[in-house]
């Protein structure tokens, strides 16, 4: 095995030190939590020599096959804690989540994905039997760095990509919840994540919610399509707020007649597990296909996979002259913003969308407020005295 020292320049001007491992055509890195300060920094030479000396010391241990944790003195806590192998506890924990009916399938998938990344991190550092008592701030910082700079999303094996900042923050949140659970179970004495400074954590990104205006929606209705079912399902969701996961599983049993007309009634939404009932207005009914004698258990829309739907919608958007990044989830955002712009209140719109918190709906209200301000300013400019 070949081991080399590498540095990476940070925004602050300092350089982070890594060890790069090469073996049998594979390469992986270890984050050392050591830094070289800029040459013009006070006492830079002494600090940098000490950091490089420590890096070379760790390199020598790795070449001898010594895990640094094995040579360090026990902090005293690990003797009082049960010796649990991290990956074994993780497998047990997410199995409990899978069996717990209060967690949705989507939540379980998020946990499972996070656990798989942690296993990759341990495998890259050849520590598959890592003990939970050894998890400290250095371990967490190294894991987050691995997620940001080394790990590749393998959903598309032919084109692996870095994870988005939104996904990174989601996995960080999942990691924190799992470590909190470990503390409650008594297999860890504290969660070391809380020792990280703000700059060491993955910041939450303000997600951009693309939505269609009334004019853009009308243009999309007139646009040609390569898949009529996708178009119908998307436009149906623009007037109901359903997610792809819910509309793709929608059966005729979910379409019910009540005194005030037809409604979509879903006992458990795919993402949240919450029940939702959505009245169908005429615009939604226009895109509901004919039942043609279908049985209650048959699907309303015979849909393709989400990625195929998104490709179809992007072509429709181009044909309609829409420059926004349109995906299937754009229909849900469009329903929310158009409903609020038409005078709907936050509470009602939130209930239609199946939100568990009014804060989730408030984001759309902020978007609508920006549109209203622009409109008011245009009126003011129109009546400006020259």
Automatic annotation (TrEMBL):
Keyword DNA-binding: yes
Domain Tyr recombinase: 207-377
Gene Ontology MF terms: DNA binding
InterPro entries xref list: Arm-DNA-bind_5, DNA_brk_join_enz, Integrase-like_cat_sf, Integrase_catalytic, Integrase_recombinase_N, SAM-like_dom, Tyrosine_recombinase_XerCD
Gene Ontology biological process: DNA integration; DNA recombination
Protein name as annotated: Site-specific recombinase XerD
Cited Pfam families: Arm-DNA-bind_5 (PF17293), Phage_int_SAM_5 (PF13102), Phage_integrase (PF00589)
Record-stated family: Belongs to the 'phage' integrase family.
Species of provenance: Bacteroides faecichinchillae
Cited Gene3D superfamilies: 1.10.150.130, Intergrase catalytic core
Keywords, comma-separated and alphabetical: DNA recombination, DNA-binding
